[in-house]
């Protein structure tokens, strides 16, 4: 297994884990159970997405494409221009 990405928070990690699963890649969110114990202190590098060695390159490409994605023009609500609402 290779650790391929460090999400900023648990929500991003779970979102990316689901996205990879939809592409047939089984990803493990390492450190998920430790997040609650961190309290108010900022702890970096605690979370990580890990995949099998043979799927690591494809998973990195998918995450890179996800991070580079921009909202389609006209998809923003009128009250929050420039903000993507998921």
Structure in words:
There is one protein chain. The protein is α+β, with helices and mostly antiparallel strands and 86 residues long. The chain has one domain: Alpha-Beta Plaits (2-Layer Sandwich), CATH 3.30.70. It is 30% helix and 13% strand. The protein has a three-stranded antiparallel sheet, with helices on one face. The mean pLDDT is 82. It is built from two helices and three strands; from the N terminus they run βαββα.
Could you give a quick summary of the protein structure above?
With 86 residues, the chain is an alpha+beta fold.
Give the overall pLDDT as a whole number: 82
- Main sheet properties: 3 strands, antiparallel
Q: Note poorly predicted spans.
A: none
Number of domains: 1
User: Gyration radius, to the nearest Å?
Assistant: 15 Å
- Globally, the shape reads globular
Instruction: State the strand order across the main sheet.
Output: 1-3-2
**Fraction of residues in H or I helices:** 25-40%
> How many strand segments?
3
| Spatial gap, N to C terminus | 31 Å
What structural class do you assign from the helix and strand content? Answer: alpha+beta
What sequence of helices (H) and strands (E) makes up the elements? EHEEH
Count of separate DSSP helical elements = 2
Any descriptors?
86 residues, alpha+beta, Alpha-Beta Plaits, 2 helices, 30% helix, globular
Task: Break the fold down into its secondary structure elements and pairings.
Elements (H helix, E strand, L loop, with lengths): L1 E4 L4 H13 L5 E3 L17 E4 L4 H13 L18
Antiparallel strand pairs: 1-3, 2-3
